[in-house]
Design brief:
CATH class of the largest domain: Alpha Beta
GO cellular component, one term: ATP-binding cassette (ABC) transporter complex
Low-confidence stretches: none
Largest sheet: 6 strands, mixed
Mean pLDDT: 91
Order of helices and strands: EEEHEEEHHHEHEHEEHHEEEEEEEEEE
Family: Belongs to the ABC transporter superfamily.
Keywords: ATP-binding, Nucleotide-binding, Transport
Bound molecules: adenosine-5'-triphosphate
InterPro entries: AAA+_ATPase, ABC_SmlMolc_Importer, ABC_transporter-like_ATP-bd, ABC_transporter-like_CS, Mo/tungstate-bd_C_term_dom, P-loop_NTPase, Transp-assoc_OB_typ2
Organism: Rhizobium lentis
Number of helices: 8
Strand content: 25-35%
Oligomer: single chain
Radius of gyration: 24 Å
């Protein structure tokens, strides 16, 4: 097995009695993009800063490329970091900012110039090389920060909410640009966000955190399609969470009118159904079909978000409607639910 580029072993951080991060473990492989995702205050930045060396763990170990750097200062860690507010030096030009880490490494002058040119080329900033940060847009400043972090060719790139200072449209474009750049240089990357869509779009692996602890680690589709806890299900996108019961005839009973064949031990359960897993019946359905009534619906352009009622349950349904079917309140619909897209949730790690 190849060695992990980053190995976090049961790291923990306490401030007095307050536990900011507990028993956090993670292995990152070469070229992997891992995202720490969770609500404000869940410990994402503290974890990132323990990898960067700005926060010393109270317990556990941080290894980078096999070296124990738990108590090493940031400049001895082989990491490059992009801060939320970019942290550019206002009195230095773009190229001086990019060269900053190289100056510290006492690199030969010609090699330094080549490396800066390479970074300017990579981030398409050649034309701006003599500008100062205040003469750049937010997106350009972010690229300078990225170029500066990558210039020293670190083993790991660390990004702390890199898109949070940008407006929604720019955010989307830069997210795609940064993603393709990171993949092109194939650098192992750990980044922090509270934006679930951003995590799903960029990460190879997502670590969902709540109250200082890991709730679930998985690929974006594992986290979205098969969340283990209610916290993860509700944090990542819209979902229907329904108290249910599995009976001895192999059915999951969500309501007297909504029963699905299901393979699970008999007992009480909490079921999760994503809104897009509820579909209009076509008449040729293999999955069970249910009668539903439209409670309300909102047109989103590419689809409708509809609240439907089956028995005594109100459920969110996302999807398109053919022109002959109107999702107006009171309309009757036939819908199908694929039992394979229904997941049973367990209680959260931390309530
Ligand atoms: N130096 C400190 N002293 C005391 N408490 C701290 C310190 N730094 C962080 N904390 C606390 O630790 C918890 C985790 O903070 P952290 O910044 O890691 O959260 P976060 O998930 O990154 O949140 P956000 O998305 O708001 O940045 C918070 O409750 C925070 O108040």
């Amino acid at each position: 097995m190849t060695q992990s580029v980053v190995s976090l072993r049961n790291i923990r951080k306490t401030y007095g009695d307050y536990v900011a991060v507990e028993n956090f473990s993670l292995e990152m492989h070469h070229g992997e993009i891992v995202c720490l995702l969770g609500p404000s205050g869940c410990g994402k930045t503290t974890t990132l800063r323990m990898v960067a060396g700005f926060v010393e763990p109270t317990g556990g170990a941080v290894l980078i490329s096999g070296n124990d750097v738990t108590v090493a200062p940031p400049y001895r860690r082989d990491t490059g970091m992009v801060f939320q507010s970019y942290g550019l030096f206002p009195h230095m030009t773009v190229e001086q900012n990019i060269a900053f880490g190289l100056d510290n490494r006492k690199m030969e002058k010609a090699a330094k110039r080549r490396r800066v040119d390479e970074m300017l080329n990579l981030t398409e900033l050649e034309a701006m090389r003599r500008r100062y940060p205040k003469e750049l847009s937010g997106g350009q400043q972010q690229r300078v920060a990225l170029a500066r972090a990558l210039a020293v060719r670190p083993a790991v790139l660390l990004l702390d909410e890199p898109f949070s200072n940008l407006d929604a449209q720019l955010r989307l474009r830069l997210r795609e640009e940064m993603h393709s750049l990171i993949k092109r240089v194939n650098i192992t990357t750990l980044f922090v966000t509270h934006d679930q869509e951003e995590a799903l779009a960029i990460a190879d692996k997502i670590v969902v955190m709540s109250k200082g602890a890991v709730e679930q680690t998985g690929t974006p589709s594992e986290i979205y399609d098969a969340p283990k806890t209610r916290f993860v299900a509700e944090f990542i996108g819209a979902c229907n969470v329904v108290p249910a019961r599995t009976d001895s005839s192999g059915q999951l009973v969500l309501d007297a009118e909504l029963k699905l064949p299901f393979d699970a031990p008999v007992g009480d359960a909490v079921a999760m159904i994503r809104p897009e897993a509820i579909k209009l019946a076509t008449g040729l359905d293999k999955e069970p079909v249910f009668k539903a009534t439209v409670v309300s619906s909102s047109y989103l352009g590419y689809s409708y978000r509809t609240v439907i009622r089956i028995g005594s349950l109100n459920l969110l349904m996302d999807g398109r409607f053919p022109s002959e079917i109107s999702p107006a309140p009171g309309a009757s619909l036939s819908v199908t639910i694929d039992p394979r897209r229904v997941k049973i949730l367990r209680p959260s790690e931390k309530q």
